[in-house]
Design goal:
about 160 residues, alpha+beta, Thiol Ester Dehydrase, Chain A, six-stranded antiparallel β-sheet, two-stranded antiparallel sheet, 2 helices, about 45% strand, 3-hydroxyacyl-[acyl-carrier-protein] dehydratase FabZ, HotDog_dom_sf, lipid a biosynthesis, cytoplasm, lipid biosynthesis
Length: about 160
């Protein structure tokens, strides 16, 4: 099982509080799939305004959490070693469907499965689950931009 803790995630992603939305990678297989979690707490700043009497995680932030999960996967699966300035940008979001709200106390289990990659463009089929129920699904396309240091050498 390949896991990453928050310190390892911070080495891969440029995001920091309050925009870092992946707490742990539970498992990943290069070129195939990644599973990560976001622990949603009542202390999240966005709950102050979305919505004060019925807090719900904004859909755009759920999609961002899925994209960060996919970005970690892209960095871990890249054919080349990327420099510290490499960034993954959104290119498209397709077929996004929200099936249930994500609320304080939920653990959002996120999966990103590689559909295809070519010349720095990566397409993923993603989903987020809460308590075994589908909360969101979407297809995301991302682009890696930044310098390539060297070809990866497999041990």
């Amino acid at each position: 099982m390949n896991t990453l803790n928050i310190h390892q995630i911070r080495e891969l992603l440029p995001h920091r509080y309050p925009m870092l939305l992946v707490d742990r990678v539970l498992d990943w297989e290069a070129g195939k799939k990644i599973t990560a979690i976001k622990n949603v707490t009542a202390n999240e700043e966005f709950f102050n305004g979305h919505f004060p009497n019925h807090p719900v995680m904004p859909g755009v932030l759920i999609i961002e959490a899925l994209a960060q999960t996919a970005a970690i996967f892209a960095f871990m699966s890249a054919d080349s070693k990327l420099d510290k300035d490499a960034v993954v940008y959104f290119a498209t979001i397709d077929s996004a469907r929200f099936k249930r709200p994500v609320e304080p106390g939920d653990q959002l289990v996120m999966e990103a499965e590689l559909v295809r990659s070519s010349r720095g463009m990566w397409k993923f089929r993603t989903k987020g689950m809460v308590d075994g129920q589908l909360a969101v699904e979407a297809e995301l396309m991302c682009a890696i931009r930044g310098g390539v240091v060297a070809q990866k050498v497999e041990a």
